[in-house]
Amino acid sequence: MPSGSGRWVRPFAVLTILALVAVGCGSKKSGSDGAAGGSADTTPNLVKTPTGDPVAGGKLVFALEAETDGWDPTQNRWAASGTEVALAVFDPLVALDSSFEPQPYLAESLTPNADSTSWAIKLRPNVTFHDNSPLNAAALEKFMTAFKASTLTGAAYRPISDLKQIDDLTLQVDMTQPWATFPFALTGQAGLVPAPAQLDNKANGTRTPIGTGPFVFKSWTPDKAFSATKNPNYWRSGLPYLNEVEFDPIPDAQTRYSSVRAGDTNIAVSSAEKTIRKMLDDAKAGTLQVVRSAGATDANLVLINVTKAPMDDPRVRQAMASAIDHAALDAVTETDPSLDATTVFNSDSKWFSADAGYPAFDLEKAKQLVGAYEAEKGPLKFELGSTTDPDTLQAVQVLQAQFQAAGMEVDIQTLEQSTYILNAVQGNYVAQIWRQFGAADPDSNYVWFNGANATGPLALNMARNIDPTIDAALDAQRATTDFAPRKQAWDTIQARQSIDLPYLWLSHLRWALAAANNVRGLDGGKLPNGSASAGLVNGVLRVTAMWFEN
Fold it and tell me: Are the C-beta atoms of residues 291 and 522 closer than 8 Å to each other?
């Protein structure tokens, strides 16, 4: 069910904190969290083996699922497509390895104190931005200060209380609470460091990115193409191999995939089951390559604004959950029933709670709840949001019919992606289809679930759900890396979300990538410390180590 940002819709990966998982076999094997997902076809990666050493040169064209509103990590909303482009121009402080563990990237090391209330980030020496200014502790402090001060992103840095330059390359980050999983937070938008000059460019900084990454910004025509050329002074010796990369937004999943088949683009990604199956059929026939992601998975869901009528009445949310017939929805979306969701975690994740108590399909119960509501408050009416993508809209229409069968009056509102996302963070919606919460470590979802982030003009807790029990459990799991207490905390969170119902869980998914047969480096290459990288991560794969073999 692709949407304007892929299957369903995924919000700006402000911090991907979120959802950096791994390149994988694409089977029902477990990732680091034991999660499985994706197309019911469990075919592993189908890629060509290089016959020689990497060859320099060439231009790679990457088909994106959506456009992004700008390139300042402190100001703009990056979904998977935005992160894909950003990782060509910026480097992350931390990246995930093939075991989904955080490894230093721009950082040389990250060292916590005894209780993880303070972290020392030591940067690699002799790294420069594209404008030849140095990457140092002062530049990192400027970025982190701006990120924390931003209305959009500041909630992600809420625990950070102070920043201190220890020496030219070391920044001490002090916390108001223990944050044992802090490195995971630096693998995405919250860890992509722009040059001070970009942050100072108030007039045009969102349009002209300046990073330390493998490619240097060349041009951007919104809704058409973003181009960047090889960084001749890249700090990672021998990289990148390509001379140029171009990213073209093509929102429709089938059109995006067809562009690869036709040779108009070299790579396209999808989280749509129908498209993934076509990818696999073509890869089996030898006409292209396919890479599957593994590890933790995003969830497809209905996002509820619990502060807006009629959703501020728990009976309405309970009625909606009880009215959803997953089997009927699966038949339309071609989703394997094993991927049906009842919590934020897939059923074979080590974090999954079988006792969460999420409502089962029960149409009679849904009708009774609607009747009780209407007897007290009158007709139950609301708008259900969708993107304009045909497959997503078809799924939303199924949900509309199921809600109507329970006695609700439901109109569908369709919007393009940037407005859709902005409405979510501003709270200007009642209920809408959504895709989110796949994370290598579940703490990455803290920012989305915490009650402190549920208010204000821009709320990263987009459901605006405030539950003190959830907040206490979030703090408990963040304070340690020990599995047992963390699992107990996440069991509590899943149970409370089954009562609050800010999210109506639908299914889990996993991405796939299609590439032309002459593209190599589809494993993501090595990390600076020599370990294998995670590869395809919820629709994102660094182009740093890609090359063409003729």
Answer: yes
pLDDT digits (tens, 9 = 90+) for 410-464: 999 999 877 888 899 999 999 999 989 988 899 999 999 999 999 999 899 999 9
pTM over 0.85: no
Q: What b/e readout covers 511-522, taking b as 16+ CB neighbours within 10 angstroms? A: bbbbbbeebbbb
Torsion of CA 377, 503, 493, 364, to 10 degrees: 60
- Could you give the C-alpha distances from 447 to 21, 182, 545, 546, in angstroms and in order? 18, 12, 32, 33
DSSP string, 73-105: TTTS---HHHHHHHHHHS-BSEEEBTTS-EEES
Segment 319-349, tens digit of pLDDT: 999 999 999 999 998 888 988 999 999 898 8
Fold adopted by 299-508: Dipeptide-binding Protein; domain 3 (3.10.105)
CA distance 253 to 251: 6
The domain spans of the chain are 299-508
- Alpha-carbon distances, residue 21 vs 37, 73, 269, 524 (angstroms): 12, 20, 15, 12
Q: Please report how the helices 253-261 and 273-284 are oriented relative to each other, as an axis angle in degrees rounded to 10.
A: 10
